[in-house]
Structures are given as C-alpha cells and as structure tokens.
C-alpha cells in the first residue's frame, strides 16, 4: 500500500537530522528534536501530541550552542538527554537536563550536566543504559568505543573503559543489547561487531554488506534487524550469525530507487518494523515472527520534500511514530487504522 501522509506536522525553524522519543513519558506521545544551523543559534524542541489531539504542541523550546548531529533521550529520566555536536573542526557530546519548571519560565535554559570529552573524531552515536539506570553511557566515534560512568548529581562523567576499533575499521553507529547490558553492537563498514563491555573485547560478528543501521528486537532475545545500503532489510538470529533468517522482499525495501538506511523495531510489540531512506520514503512492515515470511507491507509515505534523516517510535502509543526530514519537518503518523484492517 502506498499513499500520502495523513499525519500531523510540526516545523522547526532550521534544518535538522535527529529525533528521539521521550522514553519515560508513558502518559504522552513526546519527542525531542534538535536543529543543525551553521549560522543561527540552534534549538532543542520538546514536542507532544496530547491524547486524542490533532496538533503537535511545543512543550519546551531551548537554545543549544552547537549544531546537533545526534540526540538521545535518557530511558529513565524524561528531563535528561544527550547531544553529539560539531563546532568547526571540533567534535563533542554533552549531557543536558531540562529545567524542572520549564513550563512556567519565560526563557528556560537547558542545564548542562557534563561533557563527554576525549573524542578526536566525529561522534556517531550516544547510547544510554537500556533501562532502569542512567549512570552508564556509551559514546562511539569513527575509531573508538568509550564506556562512561555518569553521576548526574555531581555533574560528572568519567571514562570507565575504552577500546579502539583499529586502523582497518571505521565505526558508523551502534546499539546496546536490551537483553544483555554487558553487550553492545557496532556497525563497521561491512559487518556488525559485538563487544563484551566487561573486557572491551570483540565476541562475535555478523557479516552484512554496507550495513547502514541495525536494531535489536527487545521482545525476542538474539534477534536483530539490519538495514543494508545495497540489499535492503535482513533479520538475524545471533545464534546462527552466518546467514540471515529472513529477508524482506526487494519490493518492500527498494521503492522508486530509495535505498533503506534507517530501521527500528517497535519496542513494545515484536511485530512492527519501521524503515526509512534518505530519498523521501518511510515505510512500515509487519513481521509477526522472525522465522515466518513477513506479512504484506502496511504502508509507505513518500510525500517528503527533503531527505528523511530521523525516525522514532512512540513509547506511549505503540502504533504511533515520528519522522524527521532534513528541512526540519516533523510528521507524526498512526498506523492503528492499518493494523485494524489486517
């Protein structure tokens, strides 16, 4: 099924490429997004969709000193988030806290908790401890993997351990295993490499050509999904890492020349998969079981005026997701009507 967007839109003032759900806010569909302006003062927007609402509301608008290339919400405190930034030829990451009474302040300012110093290359992502705690972080740049110990009350972060990927490897992202807090995966050119954080040694790998992005299935241990630049979407069982256990048909993952570069599994239901490309296309597939053939494509959304750089499922409403295109346009969609027709 293909069609235009029937979603609810929200416009940022400047270009943007990162969006994150507010994971602890179980009462509202909430997202954080940040801008990427070279000349103007950048902004972080906290936006919410009220229950039964038809309009996205800006709950908080905060200035940010640098271009925001990545943003991640803390999974156990809805007021804390991280940004990875670029300033000229310098790269860095910071931890921020939204002021407690921001809704009652005229000009609320973000509280800077600490910086994650020590990176000499562009930071690819910040990963929060999967659930329940906010005292551990991982930062990944092009060559290095850092594990941090974070103390919010003391506004301090210390490197707990560090490992280099080596001269022959180029890291481009990663994800923390929700089933094993001692395991993290990193995308590395044509493979995903898995690390034991207790020893900072590699434990396993999955070979997949030109991998762009991957996500763990939080409901099924050992299962993950990859987005590969040339060959689309694959589902893997880490107990059998040689070949994927499922491949979405080419027509699902390559439409009108659009190659999939982002993929996310809905965290509270194992059957929904959201995929997107930079070429003005976002789509969902329903995959009931990693060992069965996928159900038909639910829908595609192809009326973006610019490339899609960010996607995020709502933690409050499992049928709702947000997409962000480079022109600063946020669109929140619900696929519940599509599910009910199946």
From TrEMBL:
<dbReference type="InterPro" id="IPR040323">
    <property type="entry name" value="EIPR1"/>
</dbReference>
<dbReference type="GO" id="GO:0016567">
    <property type="term" value="P:protein ubiquitination"/>
</dbReference>
<keyword id="KW-0677">Repeat</keyword>
<dbReference type="Pfam" id="PF23609">
    <property type="entry name" value="Beta-prop_EIPR1"/>
</dbReference>
<dbReference type="InterPro" id="IPR001680">
    <property type="entry name" value="WD40_rpt"/>
</dbReference>
<comment type="similarity">
    <text>Belongs to the WD repeat EIPR1 family.</text>
</comment>
<protein>
    <submittedName>
        <fullName>WD repeat-containing protein DWA2-like</fullName>
    </submittedName>
</protein>
<dbReference type="InterPro" id="IPR036322">
    <property type="entry name" value="WD40_repeat_dom_sf"/>
</dbReference>
<feature type="domain" description="EIPR1-like beta-propeller">
    <location>
        <begin position="5"/>
        <end position="257"/>
    </location>
</feature>
<dbReference type="InterPro" id="IPR059104">
    <property type="entry name" value="Beta-prop_EIPR1-like"/>
</dbReference>
<keyword id="KW-0853">WD repeat</keyword>
<dbReference type="InterPro" id="IPR015943">
    <property type="entry name" value="WD40/YVTN_repeat-like_dom_sf"/>
</dbReference>
